[in-house]
TrEMBL record:
Pfam families: DUF6458. Residues 75-94 are annotated as: Disordered. Keywords: Membrane, Transmembrane, Transmembrane helix. This is DUF6458 domain-containing protein. Residues 1-65 form the DUF6458 domain. The chain crosses the membrane at residues 32-51. Residues 85-94 have a biased composition (Pro residues). InterPro entries: DUF6458 (IPR045597). Coiled coil: none annotated. It comes from the Bacteria.
Length: 94
């Protein structure tokens, strides 16, 4: 559920809970409004948490400098995790 759907459920639930005074046999409109508001709030929290956790970590990979005369990189491999840093472009190999 996205942010828009969550806000829609919150608004619809608030309208049903606070503005509608209809009587339906065996159905309480106010309770349905509160349930929709709770579902919208839970959906909003989950959506924001998912977006926040998805953007947190960027992996940067690098290798050692090329060995002199061969054009190949040494066997050393290094990986660093940083917050909110875009990854560098891939190296150009000959």
């Amino acid at each position: 559920m996205g942010i828009g759907a969550s806000i829609f459920l919150l608004a619809l639930g608030a309208i049903l809970a606070f503005a509608v005074n209809a009587d339906i046999s065996g159905l309480d409109i106010s309770v349905i409004g509160w349930i929709l508001m709770a579902a919208g709030l839970i959906g909003l929290v989950i959506t924001l948490w998912f977006w926040n956790s998805r953007r947190r970590t960027v992996v940067t990979r690098s290798t050692a400098a090329p060995v002199a005369g061969t054009g190949y990189a040494a066997g050393e491999y290094h990986e660093v995790r940083q917050d909110d840093v875009p990854p560098p472009p891939p190296p150009a190999y000959r």
